[in-house]
Amino acid sequence: MSRRPRFKLRRWIQRNPILHHARAIAPVLLAISLSAVANAQGTMDFSGAQTLMSTFKTFAIYAGAIICFGGLIFAGIRMMSGRFQDAIPGLFGALFGAGVLGWGAGWIGSLTGQSM
Fold first, then answer.
1. How many whole angstroms separate alpha carbon 9 and alpha carbon 49?
2. How confident is the model at residue 38, as a pLDDT?
3. Does the N terminus or the C terminus of the chain have fewer Cβ atoms within 10 A?
């Protein structure tokens, strides 16, 4: 295939002032159209987000309580049997559950401005 038709088209666009200016302005028009779309994002409705985050917060509270309680039971059983060294992972599990219970629920609640 000959490369000649492409060069003719390029030369014709460069010599035609209307097409030359349209090719120069095309990136600006694209940027303006994208900025109009970006401004439209403020009209989105997030009314259900607070309910969803409240559900997540409730789950974090329950999950943290279950993890903490399970870790304490595991550690308590190990300690009552005299194996204090084996109870350390259970205590760390209880500490992790307390972190989920406190910090997790507090962080999720702060995302939507909910009070604890």
1. 54
2. 66
3. N
Neighbours of 80 (CB within 10 A): 9
The answer to whether position 116 is within a domain reads: no
Which tokens hold the place of 42? Answer: 């403020």
Please name the amino acid found at residue 78: R
Q: Are 71 and 94 in contact (CB under 8 A)?
A: yes
Cα pseudo-dihedral 73, 77, 79, 85, rounded to 10:
-90
**Same domain? 27 vs 70:** no
> How far apart (Å, rounded) are the C-alpha atoms in residues 50 and 112?
6
Residue 79: phi and psi, rounded to 5, are -70, -40
Give 45's DSSP letter.
-
| End-to-end CA, the chain | 73
Average pLDDT, 10 consecutive residues per value, the chain (116 residues) = 70 75 84 72 67 83 88 90 88 88 81 64
- Structural domain boundaries, residue 25: 4-42
CA–CA separation, 100 and 106 (whole Å): 9
